[in-house]
Design goal:
It holds the Pfam family adh_short. It comes from Jeotgalibacillus marinus. This is SDR family oxidoreductase. This protein has a seven-stranded parallel sheet, sandwiched between helices. It is globular, with a radius of gyration of 18 Å. The protein has one domain: Rossmann fold. By secondary structure, it is of the alpha/beta class. Helix 1 links the parallel strand 1 and strand 2. The chain is built from nine helices and seven strands; from the N terminus they run βαβαβαβαβαβααβαα. Helices cover 42% and strands 13% of the residues.
């Protein structure tokens, strides 16, 4: 079956699908025919503390335009009742769930780079864990009954990095590494229910916020490398979207359960490319230009 229709009839949730990787993933799942529940805190009438302009309604419209069915649902994944209501809605409307992508983050304004533990604001650090770890746990917990009714399913934890090495900030590292271990632990817990759990990382993500940070657009993004040479190896949210679409369409996905995968490695396995026809490989770039 073509990847472009491989997910027709499938029900997916992209938790944290408002912008960035979540939006790229939502659109690509829609491109493959899925019905995608796009969740987040920013709507056409309500802005989250992130202060960004992108909304869940915009992402849902892009999903539908791509060929799927986009359904925006306002959810604060740190609020248990919001998460319960989301999955009650899906159960009522479809009776099952096929794919959960856990991409909740919201930690950018809370992360104090350059400040080690002991000087980093404690409340901000603990809030990162609430938004990027606890929210993932709550969301996964309430999704499991729907997966078990379906007797199969795919849970994808979006993280940063493929290992357990520190990532430059204590609280950031703790959150992203926790996402990896969550996937590995869920794979162990859920193997008897035919539920696959994996973690996936992008490389240097060229998100909407990152484009603004460098003062560029997608059309002239390479200009950003004048400020940070590593930006030249960045990738669009569409790249991780392609990765997730390929994984979700893979009939042998169960063999990957418990694994940690990167966009650059998956591009070599599945042969997908970024929107400009290239195959960014952050792993090779990092080894040759950052670690040296």
């Amino acid at each position: 079956m073509s990847r472009e229709i491989a997910l027709k009839g499938k029900i997916a949730v992209v938790a944290g699908g408002t912008r960035g990787a979540g939006r790229g993933i939502s659109v690509k799942l829609g491109e493959a025919g899925a019905t995608v529940y796009v969740t987040g805190r920013t709507t056409n009438s309500n802005q989250s503390p992130m202060g960004r302009k992108e909304t869940i309604e915009e992402t849902a419209e892009l999903v539908t335009k791509a060929g799927g069915t986009g359904i925006p649902v306002k959810v604060d994944h740190t609020v248990e009742s919001d998460v319960i209501s989301l999955f009650d809605k899906i159960k009522k409307e479809h009776g099952r769930l096929d794919i959960l992508v856990n991409d909740i983050w919201g930690g950018d304004p809370l992360t104090e780079w350059g400040k080690p533990i002991g000087t980093h604001d404690l409340n901000n650090g603990l809030q990162i864990q609430k938004q990027a770890v606890q929210s993932h746990i709550v969301t996964a917990h309430y999704s499991i009954p729907l997966f078990r009714e379906n007797k199969k399913g795919l849970i994808i934890e979006i993280t940063d990095g493929v290992d357990y090495k520190p990532r430059g900030n204590f609280y950031y590292s703790l959150a992203k590494i926790s996402n990896i271990h969550m996937a590995q632990a869920m794979a162990q817990d859920l193997k008897d229910f035919n539920i696959t759990a994996i973690a996936v990382t992008p490389g240097f993500l060229r998100s909407e916020a990152m484009l603004e940070y460098f003062g560029v657009t997608e059309e002239n993004w390479k200009e950003g490398a004048k400020d940070d040479p590593h930006f030249i190896a960045s990738e669009t949210p569409s790249y991780i979207g392609e990765a997730i679409k390929c994984l979700a369409s893979d009939p042998k996905i169960a063999s990957k359960t418990g694994g940690v995968y990167s966009t650059w490695e998956l591009s070599e396995v599945y042969g997908f490319k970024d929107i400009d026809g290239t195959q960014p490989h952050w792993g090779k770039y990092y080894k040759n230009n950052v670690e040296t």
